[in-house]
Design goal:
CATH topology of the domain at 47-55 and 197-278: Elongation Factor Tu (Ef-tu), domain 3
CATH superfamily of the domain at 47-55 and 197-278: Efflux pump adaptor protein, beta barrel domain
CATH architecture of the domain at 47-55 and 197-278: Beta Barrel
CATH class of the domain at 47-55 and 197-278: Mainly Beta
Distance between the termini: 58 Å
Radius of gyration: 40 Å
Helix content: 10-25%
Structural class: alpha+beta
Largest sheet: 6 strands, antiparallel, barrel
Length: 352
């Protein structure tokens, strides 16, 4: 009898332990922690990424065209001599040379006076020719003299202009070699270098597979590691139709607006060419998508706090996000953390 009671007691204990284990298992299934976010309609852009070195739209180096005494002029904005980084306007004088012998050799005032005399004489001859007072040959000779006087004066003005170093466009001084004031400088010495970089261009090379996606006029987003908080806008302005047989790439040019001069010539920049864009569409993070025998799927919180696997069809994408064409709807409770071990109908617990 005692053995029978012992056997019954052991059976009861074993049954109780089995029930406890089952309850623990069920509790574990109910306690799978997940984080969710409600599906929203938003915009998404698809990019093709490239990099390159920013270059100024206009740049030049100006050399001395005569030998003369060097004089660096004052910047009217600061009242001090021009220096590196100063902005200049088109036609503004930056450096002036002085050479009395050179000026005397040009004889600008004499050539101007000769031009006035020749022009008056030609007008007088025209009036006399109309009245029959002079021959056509005399009129033509007078015209030749007036024309030669005009060319002589214009040539003298061109030679005089060589005494000044003038900005050919509005820009910024990026090089300004030092010369002692009043020093005699020889011809063909570098005086100043200018750049205008309110507009920047970028030479790019793209893989052959992208040639059907890239088009003229597409918008470009420009970023640089030194100005990460700002993005600049640009467009695809030029595209070559030729594929390089060596690199299997094609070339193009991006034009970038840089009105605040934040991007500097020579900077290495990243360019995202927008090839497709959608507004008000379902967009989710790419890293929560799983793949199976029936394709791509994600988990949402369904009825009774259970995981519901949703097969999805995707559209355009970028580095971090992807458009969902089918399978999800606005306000679906999308599981974004804790989905890795879930199965369809797994019990879940939503946490923050």
């Amino acid at each position: 009898m005692k053995n029978l009671r012992l056997i019954i007691l052991l059976a009861v204990v074993a049954f109780a332990m089995s029930c406890n284990n089952q309850t623990a298992t069920e509790t574990t299934e109910l306690a799978v922690p997940v984080s969710i976010e409600n599906v929203k309609l938003q915009s998404i852009q698809q990019f093709i990424n490239t990099t390159g070195t920013a270059k100024a739209k206009y740049e030049t180096s100006l050399n001395s065209e005569i030998t003369g005494e060097y004089h660096l002029l004052n910047n009217p904005t600061t009242g001090k001599p021009f220096k590196l980084g100063d902005k200049v306007k088109e036609g503004q004088e930056i450096i002036r040379f002085e050479d009395a012998e050179y000026v005397n050799g040009i004889a600008l005032e004499a050539k101007k006076l000769n031009l006035e005399i020749s022009a008056d004489e030609y007008e007088k001859q025209k009036s006399l020719y109309e009245k029959g007072g002079v021959t056509l040959r005399e009129l033509r000779n007078s015209e030749v003299s007036a024309t030669n006087a005009k060319y002589d004066f214009e040539s003298a003005e061109i030679r005089m202009a060589k005494m000044n170093v003038v900005a050919p466009f509005s820009g910024v001084i990026v090089e300004l070699p030092y010369y002692t004031e009043g020093t005699r400088v020889a011809t063909n010495q570098k005086m100043v270098s200018l750049m205008a970089y309110d507009k920047i261009y970028l030479e790019i090379n793209l893989p052959e597979k992208s040639i059907s996606e890239i088009q003229l006029g597409q918008e470009v987003i420009i970023t640089n590691y030194t100005i990460v908080e700002d993005t600049l806008k640009g467009i695809v302005s030029e595209l070559s139709p030729m594929i390089s047989t060596e690199t299997r790439t094609f070339s193009g040019i991006l034009q970038i607006d840089n009105p605040e001069l934040k991007l500097r010539p020579g900077m290495f920049v990243k360019a995202d060419i927008i090839t497709a864009q959608k507004d008000s569409t379902v967009v989710i993070p790419k890293d929560i998508i799983l793949s199976g025998g029936r394709g791509k799927y994600v988990f949402v919180v369904g009825r009774n706090s259970s995981a519901d696997d949703r097969r999805i069809t995707t559209g355009i994408e970028n580095q971090n996000y992807i458009e969902v064409l089918e399978g999800l709807a606005k306000n679906d409770r999308l599981i974004i953390k804790g989905f890795e071990t879930l199965r369809d109908n797994s019990k879940v617990k939503v946490i923050l």
